[in-house]
Amino acid sequence: MARNPRYDLLFEPVRIGPVTARNRFYAVPHAAGMTNSMPHMRAAFRETKAEGGWGVVCTGYVSIDPGSDDAPLPYATLWDDDDVRSHALMTEAVHRHGALAGIELWHGGGSVVNRLTRLPPMSPSGTSWMATHVGFMGNQRPRVMDAADIRALHAAQAAAARRARQAGFDIVYVYAGMGYLPYEFLLPEWNQRRDAYGGSLANRARLVRELLEVTHEAVAGRCAVALRVSLEELRARPSANAPSEAHELVALLAELPDLWDVKLDSSPTDCPPSRFAAEGSHEAVIDFVKGLTRKPVVGVGRFTSPDAMVSQVRRGVLDLIGAARPSIADPFLPSKIDEGREQDIRECIGCNICISSWHDSVPVRCTQNPTIGEEWRRGWHPERIAKAASTASVLIVGAGPAGLECALALGRRGYEVTVAEAADDIGGRLRFETRLPGLAAWGRLLDWRRGQLARLANVNVYRGNRLAAEEVLAFGATHVVIATGARWAKLLYSPLEVPTGLLEGPGVLTPDDLAAGTVPQGPVVVYDFDNYYMGGVLAEHLARGGHSVSYVTPAGHVSAWTIMSNEQPQVHRALAAAGVAVHTLARVTAFAGDSLTLAHQFTGAQRQLPCRSLIIVGARLADDALYTGLSARSAQLAEAGVRSVTRIGDALAPGALVHAVYSGHRYARELDADPATLTLRRDAPLPRQP
Ligand code: ADP
Ligand code: SF4
Fold first, then answer.
1. In three state form, how does the secondary structure of 125-164 look?
2. Is residue 180 flagged as an active site residue?
3. How far apart are the first and last CA of the chain?
4. CA 593 to CA 503: how far, in whole Å?
5. What pTM, to 2 d.p., does this model score?
6. Which one from 26, 75, 180, 667 is the annotated catalytic residue?
7. Which atom belonging to ligand 1 lies closest to the Cα atom of 651?
8. pLDDT tens-digit profile of 45-89?
9. Residue 676: HSE in the Cβ half-sphere, 13 Å Cα cutoff
10. Quick check: helix, strand or coil at residue 395?
11. What is the DSSP secondary-structure string of 226-273?
């Protein structure tokens, strides 16, 4: 298919200082969990984006000096020549496909605590960044930088920039965002210096200016120099000389970088979940930048729609369409637009599981794209899959995320696939969940698979078909895949999270009951020890529907795990806005029909809470009765010609959507594969040179 001429603009080359990007698609720096300890995985992951048509592909954050150590978070390093060779694997891979390679040089300043290197951290005035944030707490405060430290920082940036050039990078960054060192200089709360680096904005911006100058000098015109800067806080600050301090800063440094990479200030606002922010949410903060510089501007906004991208360029907001998440969910997004296949774009759903991988310090995972991070270690390519190795037929029971992904990947391999779904529509748990506040965009997971499956003549999906063991046997497929999901349990737990027994009763409900249409009676209590989104989103949903709702959790915060996915601060705000009463560090121990007994998680102190409907959002148990029923009939299975019965997704191990999709994909990749090829390839740092 040919490209829609409406999108030609996106394929224009863009000059960035001494280099030229082949198009406007720019995979911005984002941590992917693959540090210098996994150089082959990292290179293959970024190569896939270059292959998929991105004009520029950047690294994640790369420390310039051992004084900037984010361990155990997965940062990269460029401290010596061994690191140069490690990064060169990526630049060579990216260049093979005609893309430019960018490197985000980074010093964490007061946001790091140097757990690994044990060097005292430093910041402009001795203040930490987010020292009380759960994930980043440390108990050593940074020292105040003196003039020698500033000179040493210049030298470290220059040395790292020279190494970056040596490693083959085309774009080298100065990073003044997200609480990292140069950004701390920009904000007066963190920068209370009385020397030439503190006071007026021109003084506070001096360090950034000098870092840009030393970087230019170090790369000697061979690489472009980009400035990545957070503008949210500065835009909110009045300035005597300009509409805001952000305007003043951009005007001050306007032509000094070859590229402006503009972003917001903290992970939850810069990379907000779709639950709380729409596509293009950065525009209100960064829309002025292009008016103050002639240099190209790149920014992000979870852009997946080519029309939204074109609009950004036409309206003079951005020159380059930046993407982290959309390039993870679909590394081939640019190629698909180029080939007139927009409908094939696997759109990011904005769930932020990818971000949680960074918090977990592991290679990036994605709900939509199970192949991400697995390019080298499992040899999975997002657009290619091995042809079927047999003429086997496969029956998949259940068309939730696991069953659908499995059907799609098997169908692409060429197997004859039948999917039986009990409900009247596909989607599994998402049939209900996409109707909850803010979760509509998660429906993209289903929409994309529905669209792709419709093109495969060898996959048939039957709705309204609940299969029992007899019917599976009668169907007689070569392989049976059980993707029947999981159910929420009415189980209570001890403080050690050991089940203490079922709580039955007329007012005791689970999310499955609400999905089936049960209307709770007020006052309603949502008791959440699942800790992911379901408890919080249900409380918000019910409160918005007019119920009086309390939210109870043994954790210290609402939806405790969502700190990992950048959602938690906004879940707290959403519950407050909806009028939900929040009770943390509390466990439900008994329910009398009109009141609950709560015990404090640590002291055990008891109190009562009025309640007529208790919604337990706790454990999920695999819905594996069909699997166990079939497994008990080995003779009949053999007679029916069924060679294997396998559980996938929640029916195997209840988890998040990302686990279900991955599980379904993995089954499909591994069917009929030579077992010798199924081991996880282990990556390792490049051997150090003597
Ligand atoms: P997962 O996340 O693992 O895909 P879900 O719970 O989202 O799990 O989806 C499981 C799907 O399986 C649901 O749509 C459910 O209706 C369907 N299902 C469960 N049992 C059967 C059965 N015996 N026959 C057909 N479909 C079933
Ligand atoms: Fe988008 Fe979720 Fe994938 Fe991240 S994990 S890229 S937010 S779909």
1. CCCCCCCCCHHHCCCCCCEECCHHHHHHHHHHHHHHHHHH
2. yes
3. 53
4. 11
5. 0.97
6. 180
7. 3
8. 999 999 999 999 999 999 999 999 999 999 999 999 999 999 999
9. 0
10. strand
11. EEEEE-HHHHTS--SSSSSHHHHHHHHHTTSSSEEEEE-SSHHHHS--
